[in-house]
Specification:
It contains no helices and 22 strands. It is an all-beta fold. β18 and β19 form a beta hairpin. It is globular, with a radius of gyration of 17 Å.
Length: about 240
């Protein structure tokens, strides 16, 4: 088993007034050659956007872009004609493929929106762009991991153009679960959304991240009430 640990306070940070963003991996003006990616997981940004503010229309191509709101409401518009609001309990994916433009704004005028912006390198390049959004409120389970993303359009959650699986787990103190790797050779990047956990004897707190590979399973134990995002991805691009 191999591991890499990224404590919350070691992440890159960009504060623009309207936006406060923490970067687990190199992004924009934050460049760390030792933190370029974890396998095909390229970007993990922890963003807070002030009321009524947001990202103006900008382009993407050949990237799987996943947004997971943690608080508040995020308004999305894109060149495919999609207009949507995603909020806590939703997961959104944008397969940029041959190219799209989109914008993201805080829908609310009285409170900030907090969300994760995640980029995954695609399995195939130059596919037709696609948008998908689902509510995960009805599939959420207590004290075990449940799937919110996969490579299969008929599976639970959203689907992307990559052999990746995302799971979320909400645990009460003392509870635990074991996650089994779906595809041989994949690794898992665990990101602690809330609380404290222990993964393979390593103690992790809010917004800490840990990559694990060359293993068939990982065990997550909540040492305080906690919420955890697991991102299983191929380790080779």
């Amino acid at each position: 088993m191999n591991t890499v640990l990224h404590k919350a306070e070691t992440r890159g940070n960009a504060s623009h007034g309207w936006l406060n963003s923490h970067h687990t991996f190199s992004f924009a003006n934050y460049h760390n050659p030792e933190r370029m990616n974890f396998g095909v997981l390229r970007v993990l940004n922890d963003d807070s956007v002030q009321a009524g503010m947001g990202f103006g229309t900008h382009p993407h191509d050949n990237m799987e872009i996943i947004s997971i709101p943690l608080e508040g409401d995020l308004e999305h518009k894109d060149s495919m004609g999609n207009v949507a609001v995603i909020k806590e309990g939703d997961v959104q994916v944008l397969s940029a493929g041959t190219g799209i433009t989109h914008s993201e704004y805080n829908k609310n005028k009285d409170k900030e929106v907090k969300f994760l912006q995640i980029w995954v390198f695609p399995k195939e390049r130059n596919v037709t762009p696609r948008y998908d959004q689902v509510s995960i409120r009805d599939i959420a389970k207590d004290n075990e991991f449940y799937q919110v993303l996969s490579p299969n359009k008929d599976d639970q959650g959203v689907w992307i153009n990559q052999d990746a699986w995302f799971h979320i787990g909400k645990f009460t103190k003392g509870k635990s679960d074991t996650y089994n790797i779906k595809k041989k050779g994949n690794g898992v990047y665990a990101f602690i959304l809330e609380g404290e956990v222990e993964i393979n004897n390593e103690k992790l707190s809010k917004r800490d991240g840990m990559g694990i590979w060359n293993t068939d399973a990982i065990h997550v134990q909540a040492t305080e009430n906690a919420r955890v995002l697991l991102m299983e991805v191929p380790m080779t691009m």
